[in-house]
Amino acid sequence: MQKHTLAKACLMAGFLMFSSGLHAADLQDRQAELKRLQSQISKQQSSLQSTSKQREQLLSLLKQDEKAVARVAQKANETRKALKDIDKELADIASRQIQLNKLRDTQQDTLSKQLASAYLAGNHDYTKMLLNQQNPATIERMLAYYQYLNDARIQAITNLKITMEELTSLEEREQERKTRLNALMLDQQKQADELAKEQDQREQTLAQLQRVLQDKGAHLEQLQIEEASLKRVLEEAKRAVKQSASLNGLAKSRGKLSWPTKGKVRHSYGSQRSGGITWKGVILSAPEGREIKPVAPGKIIYADWLRGFGMVMVVDHGKGYMSLYGHAQALLKSVGEQVNTGDTIALVGRSGGQSEPGLYFEIRHKGQAINPARYCR
């Protein structure tokens, strides 16, 4: 078993080294691309055509950066869950060990008393007892008594053996889990370092993109393109989805739903954005990495990066109702999966070019955005 565990650990270490090498190469490629674009922008004269092209190139690079952040964040989340599970398992093992140690002490004490009683009773030659001219009824009672004591000792020994075997098994399991725990803690540190590098690369790309979008006209055009992209994606998702009879929509849930994450409203539905464009949903301020849960049961119909909204998940609730969750750090569910209210579907982030962490949240009915505050309390 130890050889098997060691081989597994070596294989995992090799895989992590190979995987880290791939990520490092990908990161270097994106860094080189950003430097090339920065050099190109500084050399070129400002023009609408060149700015538009550069913006598209930077957006493409930002998409790569944010998807890389999402991949690492997803792995880090899985590692946190695994650590939590192992901590719970170790606590359960410790609790069971306490119970078994008490049981072992009791069993040893019982067996000790039985052996002492047998010693005090002395050795009895059953053949002599049978040949003796004592009352047969008395002999029968004595034989039954000694047989009872013997059976009790055998049972006590058997019970003690079972307890000791379980204790040994628990000790081996505990050692195995502690080894796994140490490996996961090392993974967690590597993932934290990798996440920091990916986020730093994203910040550099975002800073360059914001310089290109300093012009108000370019910024407004960007917002209009983002809205059009979202509308097109939702229409495509709506056409692709097969309605489930088990999904009842949100019509009966007005004012009864919980918000998808804990946070304060930074931008409310209908408030002004820029150039006559208004917010079609709300932005909830929340720390990066906080869990996002669906407001109602449904089916995932979209889970990917979307221009302006970053890592986005769309849940179909039936009867024409959909909810959208944007700017996520990572998406934890895939298209086609059924989700319930208590499930964690994503983590709060800053994707989509956001400078502050938060969740963009929409509710739509038959393609039209409606105020989420009517449904969530």
Automatic annotation (TrEMBL):
* Keywords in alphabetical order: Coiled coil, Hydrolase, Signal
**Every M23ase beta-sheet core domain range:** 279-372
Extract the GO molecular function terms from the UniProt entry.
hydrolase activity
Which portions of this protein are annotated as coiled-coil regions? 27-89, 157-243
Signal peptide limits: 1-24
Matches recorded under InterPro entries: Cell_wall_metabolism_enzyme, Dup_hybrid_motif, M23ase_b-sheet_dom
Query: Any keyword Ion transport?
Result: no
Q: What is this protein called?
A: Murein hydrolase activator EnvC family protein
